[in-house]
Q: What sequence folds into this?
């Protein structure tokens, strides 16, 4: 991952990205972090090995933090209302109000 631009286009913004354990969601989370956003990555796959596909939200957070960014992982199954509420509550508690929401997760 390239370095974090603390003065980037999204500096000071709080972004929540669902479906961010791999693929497009992961790429969005990394890019937003590179532009200075505080990123909350969310998916059902918390740790490597929790799913048949590679990738996890903890892995994405580690990548962002190692590059100098700010990120947090919140496990969330968007099919469950209490998980959706918890996602926003944990985001606000950690980083403040949400500025950007990217709904990338598939609900099955």
A:
């Amino acid at each position: 991952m390239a370095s974090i631009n603390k003065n980037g286009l999204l500096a000071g913004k709080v972004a929540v990205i669902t479906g961010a354990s791999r693929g497009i969601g992961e790429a969005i989370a990394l890019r937003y972090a590179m532009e200075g956003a505080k990123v909350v990555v969310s998916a059902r796959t918390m740790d490597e090995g929790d799913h048949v596909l590679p990738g996890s939200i903890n892995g994405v957070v580690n990548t962002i933090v190692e590059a100098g960014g700010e990120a947090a992982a919140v496990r969330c199954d968007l099919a469950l209302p209490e998980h959706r509420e918890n996602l926003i509550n944990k985001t606000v508690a950690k980083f403040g109000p949400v500025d950007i929401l990217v709904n990338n997760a598939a609900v099955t």
Remarks:
- The mean pLDDT is 90.
- The radius of gyration is 13 Å.
- The longest strand covers residues 38-43.
